[in-house]
Amino acid sequence: MKSDTFMTEARFDVVIAGGGYVGLALAVALKHMAQDIRVAVIDAAGKPEGTQDVRASALSPSSRDLLSSLDVWRDIENDAQPMIDMVLTDSRLDDPYRPVFLHFDKPADGSPFAWMVPNASIIKVLWDKALEAGVKIIHGRVEIYHSTSGQVAIHLSDGTQCRAALLVAADGAQSALRKLAGISTVGRSYSQCGISTTVKHMRDHDGKAIQHFLPAGSFAILPLRGKRCSIVWADNKERAERLVREDDFTFLLELQKRFGRHLGEIELDGPRYAFPLHLQIARRFAGNRLALAGDAAHVVHPIAGQGLNLGLQDVKVLSDLITEAYMLGLDCGSDIVLEAYERQRRSEVMQMAFATDSIHTLFSNSVPPVRLLRDVGLSFVSRIPKLQSFFMSRAAGG
Ligand SMILES: Cc1cc2nc3c(=O)[nH]c(=O)nc-3n(C[C@H](O)[C@H](O)[C@H](O)COP(=O)(O)OP(=O)(O)OC[C@H]3O[C@@H](n4cnc5c(N)ncnc54)[C@H](O)[C@@H]3O)c2cc1C
Fold first, then answer.
1. CA 187 to the chain's CA centroid
2. How far is the CA of 191 from the centre of ligand 1 (A)?
3. What's the mean per-residue pLDDT of the chain?
4. Whether 212 contacts 222, CB under 8 Å
5. Is residue 223 within 6 Å of ligand 1 at its C-beta?
6. Pairing between strand 228-236 and 185-201?
7. Coil, strand or helix: which one is 209?
8. Which pLDDT score is estimated for 384?
9. How remote is the CA of residue 140 from the centroid of ligand 1, in Å?
10. Using one digit for the tens of pLDDT, what is the confidence trace for 188-215?
11. Is the Cβ atom of 180 under 6 angstroms away from ligand 1?
12. Which atom belonging to ligand 1 lies closest to the Cα atom of 299?
C-alpha cells in the first residue's frame, strides 16, 4: 500500500519505526499518558491479521502491571494462563528418570509468578488499542533518516517522508535504524535455534511450567489456557532446522522423548518454527534524536523468557520520559531525555544479559564436574526458602 500523500508534509511528536510488540505498546502508552501527543507507527509488515508468530510469552508481573495501567490487560486476560508452579530438571535425554532439582511453588500470597499469553493475542489487542487511541499507523518501511538540531526527517521506501521530534527504533533484532545510526552491538551467537510450537495433551497442567535442562539445550513446557502448552525447545542449530522440516510424525516422536508422559498423550496443535538464538546488546540505546527499544536494543536467550519483558520495561521508562518532557512543553527528542533513558535502562538490560548467558553456559555443559557443581548448587537453592524466593522474584521480572 502506498502511504498517504499527506505524509510528505506530516509532522509528529514521536515516530516509531516497527509495529511489533514493543513499538505498538509504546504508541499506546504515549497516547494513554498524553492524549494530544502526535504519534505515528510505521511498520513494514502491516496489519498483523493471522500473524505467523506461533510463540507465546511468559509475561512478568511488571509487564502485566504496565499492560493493566494501559487498559490493555483486560482484553488479553481471557487468553492468559497464570503460571503458578515451576520445576527445573537437569538430566540427559536418555535418562529414564528426570529428578526435580528446583521447585518454585506458588508464592505465599497465591499470586502467579508469570502469565503465558499467545503472541498473536498480544499483537492484535495492541494494534486495536493503538488505532482506538488515535495513533497513525502507516504501512511502509523506514529507509533512511536525517536528524538536525530541531527535528528528524524520516524517509520511507515509497518516497514519502515525515518529521518528528523523536524517532524510536523498535524494528527488531536486525534493526535497520540501529545500523543507519552507526550503533554497533556486542554479543555472540549461541549456535542454537529455539523451536517454538504448541501441543495439546490429555491431562490438566495445573498451571505448572517445566524446564528440562538437557545437554543440547533447554526444553520448556509452558502452560497455556486449556489443555495446551507452548514449547520452547533450544537445540543445536542444524538439528533444530532439520527437525522443523521433518514430517509431523517424526517431529512429534522427537518432541515426545523430551516432553515425557506426565500429561498423557500429546498431539501437535499448530505449526512450528525455529528461531536463531543469540545475545546482542547495542553499545548505545540512543543516538541523535533516536532511541532504540525492544529487540533493536537488546536480544537475550529465551531460556528465562525475558526478552519481551525487557522491551516492555523500555516502554515504561521511555513513555514516562517522553510524556514528562512533552507536558512541560520541552523537546521530547532532546539529549536530556535520551541520556536519562540510556541511564535508566542499561544496567537492568546488562544484568539480564549476564544472567541468561550464564544460565545457558552453565546448563549446556555436560562435563561431569560441571554437572555435579550445578546440581549441588540447585539442591542448595531448593533447601533455602529465601534463596528460592529471590530466584522466583528474578524469574518474575522483579
Ligand atoms: C523462541 C522464543 C521464545 C521467546 N519467549 C519469550 C517469553 O516467554 N517472554 C518474553 O518476554 N520474551 C520472549 N521472547 C523474546 C520476544 O519474543 C522478543 O523480545 C520480542 O518479540 C521483541 O519484540 P519487538 O517489538 O522488539 O521486535 P519484533 O517483534 O521483531 O518487531 C519488529 C517490528 O519491526 C518491523 N520492521 C522491521 N524493520 C522495519 C523498518 N525498516 N521499517 C518499519 N518497520 C520495520 C517488523 O515488521 C516488526 O513488526 C522469545 C523469543 C524467542 C525467539
1. 17
2. 19
3. 89
4. no
5. no
6. antiparallel
7. strand
8. 58
9. 17
10. 999 999 999 999 999 999 999 998 888 8
11. no
12. 19
Q: Is 23 close to ligand 1, i.e. is its CB under 6 Å away?
A: yes
The residue whose CA has the least distance to atom 2 of ligand 1 is: 302
| Cβ 15 under 6 angstroms from ligand 1 | no
Q: What is the Å distance from ligand 1's center to 14 Cα?
A: 20
Question: Model-level pTM greater than 0.90?
Answer: yes
Query: For atom 30 of ligand 1, which residue has the closest CA?
Result: 172
**How high is the pLDDT of residue 4?**
45
Listed range (52-66, 231-245, 300-314, 364-378) with the worst mean pLDDT: 364-378
Would you place residue 167 in the very low, low, confident or very high pLDDT band (cuts 50, 70, 90)? Answer: very high
**Alpha helix (H) ranges present in 169-296?**
176-180, 237-245, 248-259
Query: Contact at 8 Å (CB) between 117 and 79?
Result: yes
Distance 7 CA to ligand 1 centre (A): 26
What is the rounded (10 degree) CA torsion for 151, 185, 21, 127?
30
The grid coordinates of residue 9 equal 508534509
Q: Which atom, in ligand 1's list, is nearest to the CA of 312?
A: 11
User: Using an 8 Å Cβ cutoff, are 366 and 372 in contact?
Assistant: no
Alpha helix segments (H runs only) across 214-306: 237-245, 248-259
Q: H or E element: which one contains 17?
A: strand 11-17
What are the angstrom distances between the C-alpha of 291 and each of 23, 78, 94?
12, 33, 47
Q: How far apart are CA 133 and CA 194, in angstroms?
A: 35
CA 226 to CA 210: how far, in whole Å? Answer: 17
Q: How distant, in Å, are the alpha carbons of 102, 372, 377, 378, 387 from that of 384?
A: 11, 19, 11, 10, 5
What burial letters (b/e) apply to 110-132, b meaning 16+ CB within 10 Å?
A: eebbbbbbbbbbbbbbbbebbbe
Cα gap 312→23, rounded to integer Å: 10
Cell of 236: 543445536
Window from 34-48, 102-116, 265-279 with minimum mean pLDDT: 102-116
Atom number, ligand 1, closest to the C-alpha of residue 177: 41
Q: 233 CB less than 6 Å from ligand 1?
A: no
User: Does 297 contact ligand 1 (Cβ within 6 A)?
Assistant: no
The answer to whether residue 101 scores a pLDDT higher than 80 is no
